[in-house]
Design goal:
mainly alpha; single chain; 53% helix; Four Helix Bundle (Hemerythrin (Met), subunit A); 173 residues
């Protein structure tokens, strides 16, 4: 039995006409909420499930991964805050945001992601799109960071689409 198509009013489609800054911010918000919607209504075991045998990807792992991506690009890069530690990356464990998840608490990890969203919005507030941060000795504009984060979420939301469909048959959203 197919689960109905997922739709959620918390995720309005960005307007067709807007200034560049608001367009970038609205698309990033759209993709942030998309990932959360993909995770809703599943058990902890389903959120940790890796339905593709050759992949470490799970919905829970994707939430942890983008939490560190938000922190990396907005805090470490844009704010040049090298003291901001990773949330889930462990240099000793390959693919650490994705594995291990056995004792990970999804509710807590989702709260960490939402806290990073707040920190990311604050980091970008009041800065122009031309404002630069620093990544590996190279300047990076806020515009590039927005575009990269939109791409990051869009790519992983595609993964989430497939993972969710394999778990319970739910498609789209």
């Amino acid at each position: 039995m197919k689960v109905p198509h997922l739709v959620d009013s918390r995720r309005p489609e960005p307007p067709f006409l807007n200034n560049e800054r608001e367009m970038l911010e609205s698309w990033l918000e759209y993709h942030r909420i998309t990932l959360v919607i993909k995770c809703e209504g599943l058990s902890d075991n389903e959120l940790r499930r890796r339905p593709v045998p050759t992949s470490v990807l799970s919905l829970h792992g994707l939430v942890r991964h983008v939490t560190d991506a938000e922190r990396n690009w907005f805090r470490r890069c844009l704010l040049r805050d090298n003291a901001a530690p990773s949330v889930f990356v462990d240099a000793e464990v390959e693919g650490s945001p994705f594995v291990p998840l056995g004792t990970a608490d999804f509710t807590s990890d989702l709260a960490s992601l939402e806290a990073e969203w707040t920190a990311s919005r604050a980091a970008a507030a009041g800065k122009t799109l031309e404002h630069t941060g620093l990544r590996d000795g190279q300047e990076v504009s806020l515009r590039w960071i927005y575009l990269h984060m939109i791409e990051e979420y869009a790519r992983h939301n595609g993964h989430a689409d497939l993972i969710r469909e394999m778990i319970d048959g739910a498609v789209g959203c």
